Amino acid sequence: MITTSQAPPSFVSARRAAAPLRERFPFPYTVVGTEPPMQSLRRCASSWRADADARASEVVDAFRRTGGLVSGEELTLMLRKRTSQPISMLARWIVERRVVSFGLRGEYLVPMFQFEGAYMAVRRSVSAVLAELKGVFDDWDLATWFALPNDWLGGHAPVHVLPIDPHAVLQAARADRFIAQG
């Protein structure tokens, strides 16, 4: 038999025990009469979302013009010609930053400019640039670095200059690494 001293506290008694806490620490939106009038609240004007969407569109367009973009799943299907473990190979490339890849709107994308032939080998020029930028930029920064105009390349995007002058892109990567690291 359970006595009243052993019984678990009821919801009502628990609310009474919490009352002194509310008196000591009143929260402005739980105390009656302190809610701000809805007319005085206005939406914060920010262009961050629009700017981020515009930047993402610019990056995606640059990669589409230079071989396109594929999802991680599509790339693993393409890598089956090369290896029996395409998922492991792609995962290793991504983790070790041997390829440019980035997440956008819930999908992981890989630009195709960095691969050559049906064998899907990573271009040496891309590997050299990625080695130069290793540890300096995150995935999205790397993608934007390749896709957007670069002052060291006369205002041209590295993804467009790479096939023509890989040495200039490598020098631009060195300069940007030096600046980013301080």
- Main β-sheet, spatial strand arrangement: 1-3-2
Strand content: 5-15%
User: Into how many domains do the coordinates divide?
Assistant: 1
State the end-to-end CA separation: 73 Å
Radius of gyration: 27 Å
Helix-strand makeup class? mainly alpha
Number of strands: 5
Low-pLDDT regions: 7-38, 40-48
Question: Percentage of helical residues?
Answer: 40-55%
Mean pLDDT: 80
Number of helices: 8
Order of helix and strand elements from N to C terminus: HHEHHEEEEHHHH
Structural shape: globular
**Quick one: biggest sheet?**
3 strands, antiparallel
Notable characteristics:
182 residues; mainly alpha; three-stranded antiparallel sheet; two-stranded antiparallel ribbon; 8 helices
Description:
The relative contact order is 0.09. The protein is mostly helical and 182 residues long. Helix 3 packs across helix 4 (86-95) and helix 5 packs parallel to helix 8. It has one domain. The protein has 8 helices and 5 strands, in the order H-H-E-H-H-E-E-E-E-H-H-H-H. The strands form 2 sheets. Strands 1-3-2 form a 3-stranded antiparallel β-sheet. Residues 7-38 and 40-48 have low confidence and may be disordered. Strand 2 and strand 3 (107-111) form a beta hairpin. The N and C termini lie far apart (73 Å). Helix content is 48%, strand content 8%.
